[in-house]
Amino acid sequence: MAYTTAEEVLKRAAVKRDALNRDTNVPFADDVALQTWLTGTVIPEAEKIVNEFCRRLDFQKHEDQIDYFNGDGFRSFIAVTKRPIIMVDKVEFKKADGGWDLKPSSDYFIRGDQVHYSTVLPEGFQNIRVTYDWGYTTIPSDVAGVTAEICARLLQKMIAFKMGPLVRVDDYRIQLMNPEIFTDDLKDLLAHYSQEAAAIS
After folding, report:
1. Is this model's pTM higher than 0.90 or not?
2. How many CB atoms lie within 10 A of CB 18?
């Protein structure tokens, strides 16, 4: 799912299509052309910038992630590799014959990004398997807002420089990274996602 919409970007930017054109109907022949460019080009690039800053793959929901762990015979919890956890589908211990023993959900609980088992985890190499969903079921509102604001500021910058050093449609990637667009106040809104991701590595 996209982090924001063309409609939200245009509402924040408060700009008209004609103000973005260098000449009559160039480069945006109609409102659909502008929205298509925002949806297909600018918003995805803004999402990449947000993801890179937050050190995340994305903010989507991911299902059926499988992690393997070594049991040490004295700990009773494991920390999964992808965060945040939405739900744990299965916790399994490897059996002597190489098969897997599915544990009932009553034997474990989730605390933050850790799976806590009711007793110590059995000792062994890659003998614990956890299947879980992680990420976000909906895009966090601050992530959506920052993505829309980055895009809106690009449109405003294109208009501001229309009569001077021209910001062409093809220059969007560089412009989105501009300190005047992706500013410290926007980075502050995303900082806790970056810190959370850093705790994983």
Report:
1. no
2. 9
